[in-house]
Design a protein that fits this description.
This protein has 419 residues and is α/β, with parallel strands linked by helices. Helices cover 44% and strands 15% of the residues. The chain folds into two domains: 6-54 and 301-417, Aspartate Aminotransferase, domain 1 (Alpha-Beta Complex); 61-299, Aspartate Aminotransferase, domain 2. It is built from 18 helices and 14 strands. The strands form three sheets. Strands 4-10-9-8-7-5-6 form a seven-stranded mixed sheet, sandwiched between helices. The longest helix is centred in the C-terminal third of the chain and has 20 residues, at 301-320. It binds pyridoxal-5'-phosphate (PLP).
Length: 419
């Protein structure tokens, strides 16, 4: 019989196989210093474009003060136990009520982590007769939630309403035989490429089909919409989103998440969300911290204005210099270049070592082979000077990519990897 670990010794997986070349630098890098527009990487200052601290709250003095006071008052244990058993408090309830009001829903429920909460919410919303229809580019937490589903599921082409419609037709036929309902899942903003989910058009399909809509708005919450209530507000369809989700890990610069919906739906979920029923309650420190952050989001519109000033400068600057930033409709700023994985590695090294620019790099198999995606996240803490320096650096790396410098630099690796 085979040893269970045999496959692990042989195959490290699609990303793990790059560990020897990538670890500590391209993956698991250690950014040091206070979270801000400029941090340290391997002892050198870099402009950081890879942190989802959209509104610049992570290191805001008022936030740091409240976090520190809450830590002093409650420590990191309080409250002990799951919400249902012994981990429920007035402040958890207050935060839920304030979040619900902010995103214009009747009720909200806290989740310890966005990822687990999404998985668990998908799981709780459907039973085996139901059918899930979801965007093929959905975040891993949606995919993993769908994996728990015992019934049928269909994917539709990314943000393609015609494809969604076709799949809704199939799902409707199937639901008529199973006696179940249909759950459609989209993201408010697709975090890799920055497009908004076509929520308005999805909602319009409710005229023709009977389904409920669940939206993961991790990147839209705090950044889109008049008050920052997200992609649904931006597109004028917040009321037609049946279950709304956002994480604290981005605009709110913390840990935790929430779902919001009609009272009756939240009442059901609170008794059926396994990730919350069988896990310790969100720490009080994080609850108090989230109340403070939400208050700032509500009362300091300048945070979002500062963010968008930087987003606009970066995105229009890149476009004016002829860079391909795809079809983003949000703060997420992708820059698409052509090259192999070894070239991408040489390019990112050049960006970090010689230009002091730190951004995330995404390559095959996450995007098609031969494409390099540099993914940039502007924040309210960046300056126009940061943008100018970055644009100049991008001009320089593009020239070296085009004139074959990176190909020559990575020749040995290209040969070794067969790229
Ligand atoms: C679209 C999306 N959904 C969910 C999550 C998970 O949230 P969390 O980090 O709170 O687990 C993320 C990433 O953080 C995300 O980008």
């Amino acid at each position: 019989m085979k040893d269970l670990f045999e496959k692990i010794y042989k195959d490290k997986g699609p990303l793990g196989k790059w560990a020897a070349q990538a670890e500590g630098y391209f993956v698991f890098p250690k950014l040091e210093g206070e979270i801000s527009n400029r941090m340290k990487f391997q002892g050198k200052e870099v402009i950081t474009w890879s942190i989802n601290d959209y509104l610049g709250l992570a290191n805001h003095p008022e936030v740091r003060k409240v976090d520190a006071e809450a830590a002093a008052q409650y420590g990191s244990a309080y409250p002990m136990g799951a919400r249902m058993m012994s981990g429920h408090t007035e402040l958890h309830e207050q935060l839920q009520n304030e979040l619900a009001e902010f995103v214009n829903k009747e009720a909200a429920y806290l989740l310890n982590f966005g990822y687990q909460g999404m998985v668990s919410t998908v799981d709780a919303l459907v039973s085996k007769d139901d059918i899930i229809v979801y965007d093929v580019d959905a975040h891993a937490c949606i995919i993993d939630g769908v994996r728990l589903h015992h019934g049928k599921r269909f994917t539709y082409k990314h943000n393609d309403i015609e494809s969604l419609e076709k799949n809704l037709e199939r799902a409707t036929k199937m639901a008529e035989t199973t006696g179940g309902g249909i759950l459609v899942i989209s993201e408010g903003v697709f975090g890799m490429r920055g497009e908004q989910g076509r929520l308005k058009e999805i909602v319009a399909l409710k005229q023709k089909f009977n389904f409920r809509l669940f939206v993961d708005d991790a990147h839209g919450f705090g950044t889109l919409g008049k008050t920052g209530a997200g992609a649904g507000q931006e597109q004028g369809v917040q009321d037609d989103i049946d279950v709304y989700f956002a994480t604290f890990a981005k605009s709110l610069a913390s840990t935790g998440a929430f779902i919001a919906a009609d009272q009756e739906i939240i009442d059901y979920l609170k008794y059926n969300l396994r990730s919350q029923m069988f896990a310790k309650s969100l720490q009080m420190q994080l609850v108090v911290g989230a109340l403070k952050r939400l208050d700032m989001l509500r009362t300091m519109p300048e945070l979002k204005q500062n963010l968008w000033k930087i987003v606009d400068a970066l995105q229009s600057g890149l476009k004016n210099r002829g860079f391909d930033i795809g079809t983003t409709q949000s703060c997420v700023t992708p820059v698409y270049l052509k090259g192999s994985i070894p070239e991408a590695m040489a390019l990112v090294r050049d960006l970090r070592e010689n230009h002091g620019i730190f951004c995330s790099i995404v390559v095959y198999p996450v995007i098609p082979r031969g494409l390099i995606l540099l993914r940039m996240i502007p924040t309210a803490t960046h300056t126009l000077q940061d943008v100018e320096e970055t644009l100049d650096a991008f001009d320089a790396i593009r020239e070296r990519l085009d004139n074959g410098t990176y190909k020559r630099m990575s020749a040995a690796l290209i040969a070794a990897m067969g790229e």
